[in-house]
Fold each of these.
Amino acid sequence: MYRTHNCGELRNENIGQTVVLSGWVQKIRNLGGMTFVDIRDRYGISQLVFDDKNQNLCDKARELGREYVIKIQGKVIERSNKNSKMPTGDIEIIVEELTVLNKSEIPPFTIEENTDGGDELRMKYRYLDLRRDSVKKNLILRHKMAHEVRNYLDENNFIEIETPILIKSTPEGARDFVVPSRMNKGEFYALPQSPQVFKQLLMISGFDRYYQIVKCFRDEDLRADRQPEFTQIDCEMSFAEQEDILNMFEGLAKHLFKNIKGVDFNDEFLRMTWADAMKYYGSDKPDLRFEMKFVDLSEIVKGNNFKIFDEAEYVGAICAESCASYSRKQLDALTDFVRRPQVGAKGLVYVKYNEDGTFKSSVDKFYSQEDLKKWADAFSAKPGDLLLILSGNRNETLTSLGQLRLEMANRLNLINNNKFAPLWVVDFPLFEWNEEAKRYTAMHHPFTSPKEEDIDMLDTNPGDVRANAYDLVINGVEIGGGSIRIHDNDVQQKMFKLLGFSKEAADSQFGFLMNAFKYGAPPHGGAAFGLDRWVALFSGLESIRDVIAFPKNNAGRDVMIDSPSIISDEQLKELNLKVTKEPS
Ligand code: ASP
């Protein structure tokens, strides 16, 4: 028998019992005649004592090394030197028998909270990294969340159905990963960017409520919240309106908040239109843990011969409370921030509302104290506050101001990490103008339905058509989103046309779906939530890599298994493929 107990469960009530434990050697200390060994497994750590009265056993213990796998038998006794920081800290085990189950080489980094291993090294030996509590606990949380998701959805009649991985291009707007087909030479499968079309087909099949915790693949440039393969909680419902769907998944979010974080949300989640989210926060995923709403100054700043404002489509500002004392250096740093290419503003105008009630600004030449007072009043600003103003093209300026808002919140420590601020962003535009391609693309995906009352504008003013689409946002993170789908063949055809698909292209890519729509498609809609992001959010982590057992690095590489890698000439031949450029 390998164990009667695990390494984390022995307590006072076990004192006097003979137990068998198996696990890894965490630490060895020789103190006087005694040798102490910490034994670790997934559940915790227990202290073993080797008494020098048993010389043979003691000698054996001294030969142990870090990460050896051992089995011991011994008696649980009360510890004289209790350790209140360890759950097993009241007891120790006097070892009577020791078996080395397997030796270990010296690990490349210490398997402890504050490891000496850098990121690359830890990823190369990820299986060792996963022995560390801080990493392990994220995966355990992930498991619990997935389990609670299944509980909730099962209680609500959802059926988990697997959909294929080798498919053809799906319409989420990213680049596909492709897999060559050996049996169909010259042809390729695409990996699903999401199971979107399959879940819609399942609604046509009558499954009514579907879900799947599923891997999705998107070949995009990587960031902290992106991996080439990631996991979605993918859901779809028939005979459901937007309201039904928001309620159902708000229920899921509340279930997770309650069962995982112990937080009760009694009130309904806030709902904000996409237009308001952009207007007041410059983001379609506003972080509402703090306020700092934008004020549109476009009208009141015009007419004073300050060309930049006079010519701007939009002039907007935020008010940073108690920041009027900012130094030249601090203001310069903010100007540098807004000028970063990722932020994209040309410059920053500030107005200091001094404690003595006077104003000092970078545009004093053009505006009187009374003018500046009007701006401050638009915010109900107080002496001591600082207005930060950006101007230019409306959409770009709103986005830049949104980034400045987040930057200021970080600088001013306004973000309470123990707070959760969930909201639904609704009424997204149906289309997005793609400047490069000079055409509209679907903001969500081509199966998203336009709002009934906006359908008339499809031909005249597509940019203004709103969609039955929604996102769940928590603390500035887009946790998921979805839409009510088009279930009418004519509207779907029209949508493809507006998106620039020729009839042939639409047929070849989505003909199967169009066909299915001819056989009684129920009204349906759904949503998908990013499991990785949700777990990261609940763990208080920035990067989703930390909640994935075997993630890829920023270059899309798995440095542990060394992938991607080249394949043999035989494999290439079998697949009828030729590599023309040597991999670098
Ligand atoms: N397939 C969509 C996505 O991956 C979600 C949905 O519309 O249900 O974003």
Amino acid sequence: MATILDGKAVSAHVKAEVKREVEALAKQGVSVSLAVILVGDDPASHTYVRNKEKACAEAGIRSKTYRLPADTTEQALLALVETLNADKAVNGILCQLPLPKGLNEAAVIAAVSPEKDVDAFHAVNVGRIMLGNYAFLPCTPAGIVELLDYYRIDPAGKRCVVIGRSNIVGKPMAMLLLHRDATVTVCHSKTEDLAAITKTADILVAAVGKPRFVTADMVKPGAVVIDVGMDRDENGKLCGDVDFAAVEPKAACITPVPGGVGPMTIATLLKNTVTAAKLQNGLR
Ligand code: GUN
């Protein structure tokens, strides 16, 4: 029986800490606020944004969501970002991805002021992560590292395999594990003999976006398995990138879906928003 890495429980600790910090800032006359932009009607994005709003409210962070129709023009979207960049009452700006077809994600990411970029997607913040001197943590990877820390799983010297090379998860995940002295391999859709590589992993991070992609034969006995997926199976049921039922008996530790990585991502977002407020008020 694997240890279940309980992101819901661990994120509750992180969120309680954030709440204390927000209260302490309020006593100094500093309020903390997040602006969320949600374009179109992707149901998963709407769920994620609702979860982010709820978490902000619980932590005492003011949040405002700008829900825009799918046919919003790039010009209108960039104009909103500029308005939020200039608004001193807004500390953090997050544009939920993916954007509807026809909107240029790179242009929107580049438009967000790096000082308010609580996703850490802007090139300036990505570069800082690469160099290891970052203020904003990449939300999902940092949430995963915090979860590992909580369970005293130390990546140092370990073989870590990340499946997926997205800018949001795979690449920054590899970088954070490297900062923790892991030996990191990044696999992707063109990787040959994937299972041979994943089977070497002491820590395996699946960020593929395909339901139950990681099967038991791809996992080393006693591995730590981190599932970033939020997928729907053929019956429309929520599941991860890992075949949990088959992999769990083989793993030493595993994250569930839901209740694993997702809540940790949101907890990191809250931390970043507090960091933004502090930086903008000269408190760090
Ligand atoms: N879409 C999936 N994950 C994320 C995330 O962490 N931030 C944003 N903005 N969009 C996402």
Amino acid sequence: MTSIYPQFVVAKFGGTSVADFDAMNRSAGIVLADDHVRLVVLSASAGVTNLLVELSEGLESRDRMDKIDTLRTIQYNIISRLKAPLVISKEIDQLLENIARLAETALTMPSTSLSDELVSHGELMSSLLFAEVLREREAQAEWFDARKVIRTNNLYGCAEPNINLVEDQAEAHLRPRIEQAIVITQGFIGSDDAGHTTTLGRGGSDYTASLLGEALQAARVDIWTDVAGIYTTDPRIVAQARRIDHISFSEASDMAAFGAKVLHPATLLPAMRKNIPVFVGSSKNTAAGGTLVRRETENPPLYRAIAIRRKQTLLRLHDLHTQPAYRFFAEMFAILAEHRVDVDLVTTSESCIALAVRFFLALHEFRETTAADNSTWVQSPNVG
Ligand code: ADP
Ligand code: ASP
Ligand code: MG
């Protein structure tokens, strides 16, 4: 289909950028200031996903009611500032009722599928409200259910997208909509083949934005957050951190993978595949500029940045020379693959291999698998 918006931009707004009415209004201003923005991807309002995650863990009645009241207050603080709150308040009430019902079920019949269904409500609510904020500013804005397009497997909580299916669905369902209106959709959520709601992992809205940018060949993906770009280290922790104005896909991707929370670790992969520049800036201060991530940068420094990743486990393995090293390594990685354990860092020496892995829980399964053979393992206390 020939597009009337060949240079269109995907704009993603994180939790603090849609935290309340003023933040939403500021973010709406950013959307309206750039005619190229035709697709808007939203996170849940700040704090909402955490509350929903707690509810999905199965809370007793009193705690449950408290959390749902807090959720209602966040939504109604926004609704009360709308000029015509009635229509949207009915839809939000319906979603709050769903949340209450699902949270009650989570106590007696918890499941990962139910958790994803429950936490998806944060993005569903923020996107409905944001579309309304835009309409009240005379924009032609249309709400769109991202689950129609973001098709994933059924690994609830960290579902993996089916890139080809996402492209087909986006072309069929989303492209025609962005020709007609500014489309407002949800980050983070998708659906599996059975039609159940899935999520892409915490912070996954960035990933949604770049997946949709890839699927529709956007000219740029803008990630609007609470910092004016990617810094040499987390500016909230180190005041002397400096903004990096231009950075390559691979450098920024490594930073994200090693803990720079500003981008979900998978965000840059779709952008890299289609060579789509990604801009990162602050929705609170657009004048401050930001970082442009693109294929190449001139004169990259020897050291780019420092990142921190907490909750890492260091695992040291010795095989006591019972087999050739290559076989030992091959078997070890096969076991890790079988258990879907991500390895972040590897170092080897003649007698030992050290791995930094993400999930402590996975190690218990790993220990069971390796206990029967000759290898020994030493697990360090959690690092970070
Ligand atoms: P959003 O809700 O908009 O997705 P996040 O909280 O996920 O925002 O990401 C933004 C945060 O990332 C910043 O507030 C900052 O503390 C953190 N951060 C970590 N490392 C970096 C870095 N190198 N550069 C910029 N921000 C970073
Ligand atoms: N709302 C989700 C989270 O808090 C996804 C996101 O914000 O990117 O993790
Ligand atoms: Mg984020």
